[in-house]
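User: Could you check the structure of this?
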Amino acid sequence: MSILIDENTKVLAQGLTGAQGTRDAEFCLRYGTKIVCGVTPGKAGVEVHNLPVYGSVKEACQQHQVDASVIYAPPLSTKEAVIEALEAGLKLIVALAEFVPRHDTAVIAAAARENGAVVIGCNTNGIISPGKSKLGAIGGDDPSEVFAPGRIGVVSRSGGMSAELSLAIKRGGLGVSTCISMGGDVIPGNPMVDYIQRFVADPDTDAIVMFGEPGTKAEHEVAAYLRTKACTKPLIALLAGEFQENYPQGVSFGHVAAMINDVEDTVSAKRKMLSSAGAIVVNSLGEIPLKIREHLGS
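Assistant: Sure, the predicted structure tokens are below.
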């Protein structure tokens, strides 16, 4: 089992006819993702990779069973594309674009909550359940180089680090049930703590690995959840960016959300907070598989 996607998830690609959509779809199809169609306004009737393209999500959903959408739209068009998918009834949406205006990301997050949907992103490279399916650019053209199937859930604020975490797990002789790059924006479509709760509820996930950064209160929400004692599985946390504490506040490094505005935003504070709440805080990638095995008794 996995969370959110598996080998049966049927996907439409909004923006399939664009260069990035066409390229990513090729890699996803090769991996086994069940992309059933695409949507591009004004391009209805064309085909990409032998997949039909429709002019709207509503029309596509009338012709196909669709479970999820992956959106290849420019930043200023992403909000409209997400709302269109939500209005069509889709409950899982991956919004890849970076530089989506912050007000738009707030609208997206609110609309997702109102519709009981999960929006991964914005500013993400996607989600993968190794050996089953992937949505977005995550894993590139050969995900098997990095992602091995297994029983460890991964959620990361960084797309690059989602791969690094999963590779460390693979090199440690373990594998991943699902890996989610949740997005690096200040207002994500779905909170980190929700993914962790889903992993806790998944019978085929034994432990969880998270990657955090300076800025936002994502890790604070995770710590609050841990303090309820509802997390029944080991949670290993790696946080990077302590160097940023030596620089002026209010400056982003890498992701737009990686900005320290007060002491609670610092990695040092977040490490202490997560550790006191019950997370297993590590300082390097190499520690991750060791801690997993230690706490699972394997």
